[in-house]
């Protein structure tokens, strides 16, 4: 099977790149749900006994989001295009990455009993799409290469002003020249002050020098690193002091505007999973502050590294069910985001052992089932009545 790779883009973000077709033996809808190992790993069935995210709006600052995808119909609000050029709605190079992230967060599946397609972590939450980056294969990208502009900062502020309870940033710049932008930092702090939780991908630079990635490194942001189904740090996942928690980021099933399904990898996906977890917490406890929710995720994470945290997985694997249980004992209070302190410079990228046995949750998943910078995708299923064809 052929594999092609294309890189670069607005905000120096690397998006969906490599595609290969899986034999038609995988073309069964029930096979898609079975491949969503993250649903079991994140204890979603336990969390859904409390809430599925109803009443919460998650802003997806990304490429476009297809509101007519069968797994997202009814869950996508009217958003905003902060770019204003390039591909347009209805064209495939407009909404691939954004649709994939929206599905991870708030996909509700489709078909009888919604048993087909992708199920998100918070399937009753709403998605507020804000287009701030170009797709990897957008023809206009060559003109925008290495141009950051103000789209991200403006998008964060717009989302915070238009009802976003959670802001997902499955994107970032982790190039060697990456540096903080005052306007972006100010926008993040503005959103946090308005009560919106900001989640970002930690970066995919784990094999390229672990360069700091922005916006993940801005104060107050929940930075998501990636692990595989065994709970092991994904080799591509950036190891840095700002890591908050880890989430699924390898062999992740994603929805696509072409109504096929793909397997992807990247801290893009990890960020979306964490945003889904935050949406569940906000739905059950809407008055909790961003700082409280960040602390909840840290204190209830599973499989914590020795010493409590490290740069690879932060405080451990995100566990929304445990966070919901702990949140019931909290009361809202006025916490403001603070700059990172000395405690974030600790044990380094990796530690030898964990407080919990990762295999206790990972091994059953591995046996049972058979992106914000780079997502490599493999098509799994197009649909029962659609022909199987090359992508």
From TrEMBL:
GO cellular component assignments: plasma membrane
Molecular function terms, GO-annotated: serine-type endopeptidase activity
Ranges in coiled-coil conformation: none
Superkingdom: Bacteria
Compartmental location: Cell membrane
Keywords: Cell membrane, Hydrolase, Membrane, Protease, Serine protease, Signal, Transmembrane, Transmembrane helix
Topological relation to the membrane, as annotated: Single-pass membrane protein
Active site: 62, 97, 268
A biological process term (GO) from this entry: proteolysis
Entry's family note: Belongs to the peptidase S8 family.
Name of the protein this chain belongs to: Type VII secretion-associated serine protease mycosin
Species this chain originates from: Streptomyces griseorubiginosus
Taxonomic lineage: Bacteria, Bacillati, Actinomycetota, Actinomycetes, Kitasatosporales
């Amino acid at each position: 099977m052929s594999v092609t790779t294309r890189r670069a883009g607005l905000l120096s973000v690397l998006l969906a790149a490599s595609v290969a077709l899986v034999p038609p033996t995988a073309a069964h809808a029930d096979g898609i749900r079975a491949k969503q190992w993250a649903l079991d790993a994140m204890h979603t069935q336990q969390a859904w006994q409390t809430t599925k995210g109803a009443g919460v709006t998650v802003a997806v600052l990304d490429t476009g989001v297809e509101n007519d995808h069968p797994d997202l119909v009814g869950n996508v609000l009217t958003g905003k295009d902060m770019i204003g050029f390039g591909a347009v709605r209805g064209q495939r190079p407009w909404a691939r990455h954004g649709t994939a992230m929206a599905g991870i967060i708030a996909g509700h599946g489709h078909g009888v009993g919604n048993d087909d397609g992708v199920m998100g972590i918070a399937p009753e939450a709403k998605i507020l799409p804000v287009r701030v980056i170009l797709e990897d294969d957008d023809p206009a990208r060559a003109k925008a290469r290495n141009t950051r502009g103000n789209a991200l900062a403006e998008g964060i502020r717009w989302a915070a002003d238009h009802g976003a309870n959670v802001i997902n940033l499955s994107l970032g710049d982790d190039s060697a020249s990456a540096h903080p932008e005052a306007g972006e930092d100010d926008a993040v702090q503005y959103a946090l002050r308005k009560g919106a939780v900001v989640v970002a991908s930690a970066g995919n630079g784990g094999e390229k020098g672990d360069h700091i990635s922005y916006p993940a490194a801005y104060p107050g942001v929940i930075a998501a690193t990636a692990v595989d189904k065994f709970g092991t740090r994904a080799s591509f996942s950036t190891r840095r002091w700002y890591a908050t928690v880890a989430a699924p980021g390898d062999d992740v099933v994603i929805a696509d505007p072409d109504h096929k399904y793909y397997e992807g990898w990247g801290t893009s996906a990890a960020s979306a999973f964490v945003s889904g977890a935050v949406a569940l917490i906000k739905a059950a406890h809407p008055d909790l502050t961003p700082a409280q929710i960040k602390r909840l995720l840290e204190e209830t994470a599973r499989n914590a590294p020795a010493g409590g945290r490290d740069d690879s997985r932060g405080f451990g694997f995100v566990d929304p069910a445990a966070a919901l249980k702990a949140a019931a004992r909290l009361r809202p209070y006025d916490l403001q985001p603070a700059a990172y302190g000395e405690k974030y410079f600790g044990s380094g990228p990796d530690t030898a052992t964990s407080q919990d046995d990762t295999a206790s949750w990972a091994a059953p998943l591995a046996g049972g089932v058979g992106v914000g910078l780079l997502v490599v995708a493999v098509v799994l299923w197009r649909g029962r009545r659609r022909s199987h064809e090359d992508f």
